[in-house]
Amino acid sequence: SQTIHQWPATLVQPVGSPLSLECTVEGTSNPNLYWYRQAAGRGLQLLFYSVGIGQISSEVPQNLSASRPQDRQFILSSKKLLLSDSGFYLCAWAAENRGTQYFGPGTRLLVL
Amino acid sequence: AQSVTQLDSQVPVFEEAPVELRCNYSSSVSVYLFWYVQYPNQGLQLLLKYLSGSTLVKGINGFEAEFNKSQTSFHLRKPSVHISDTAEYFCAVRSGGSNYKLTFGKGTLLTVNP
């Protein structure tokens, strides 16, 4: 069966510091991968999605970036965090040609 | 463009009462519909989905939803709720296409009181 991991689970970072959140999927190959941000009371905002290694589509311009160095690894990064980057970050995967998305456990980021 | 409206941001109910969480969507093409549940500080878990076929879809934990094309709705129901059903529920829609992007509603917080 497929599983999706995210780490760290919780992160507290100062404003202006860099960020790296990692997401990995097991038990499938060539998945579509997604990064979402969930802010309190605002639902889910799609940040990035990827249909293959090195292929990244950005949904919202901001100071975040994403990379997919391996088939089942998806990384969310920032060079300098802002206060507004605080939130709950969720990674999701979907099997190619099917589309149902399955979510990871999330990373809670607090920028101080 | 597709959009999802969850009409109630909060729904309080008593234990063992029935509940309906409402979801309406708009899309110009055929759609696939989903309900997810999120417990505090956890990721989203798929409750059920409508892809094709029977318009009444049964999911986990005793939930079901009915796809109504004429009313562009996909309401979630449970005949008798438990305290453990307290969570946030998200409706999502995906239109036919190759990018498999989901559009989510803003969520409905279901609170089950004893």
Write the layout of secondary structure elements.
The complex is a heterodimer of chains A (112) and B (114).
Chain A: E1 3-7, E2 10-13, E3 19-26, E4 32-38, E5 44-52, E6 55-58, E7 64-70, E8 73-78, E9 87-94, E10 101-103, E11 107-111
Parallel strand pairs in A: 2-11
Antiparallel strand pairs in A: 1-3, 3-8, 4-5, 4-9, 5-6, 7-8, 9-10, 9-11
Chain B: E1 3-5, E2 10-14, E3 19-21, E4 24-26, E5 31-38, E6 44-50, E7 56-58, E8 64-68, E9 73-78, E10 87-95, E11 103-104, E12 108-113
Parallel strand pairs in B: 2-12
Antiparallel strand pairs in B: 1-4, 3-9, 5-6, 5-10, 7-8, 8-9, 10-11, 10-12
Task: Give an overview of the whole structure.
The complex is a heterodimer of chains A (112) and B (114). Chain A has 112 residues and is an all-beta fold. Helices cover 0% and strands 59% of the residues of chain A. Chain A has no helices and eleven strands. In chain A, strands 2, 4, 5, 6, 9, 10 and 11 form a seven-stranded mixed beta sheet that branches. In chain A, strand 7 (64-70) and strand 8 form a beta hairpin. Chain B is mainly β and 114 residues long. Chain B is built from no helices and twelve strands. In chain B, strands 2, 5, 6, 10, 11 and 12 form a six-stranded mixed beta sheet that branches. Chain B has a four-stranded antiparallel beta sheet with strand order 3-9-8-7, with no helix packed on it. In chain B, 39% of the residues are buried.
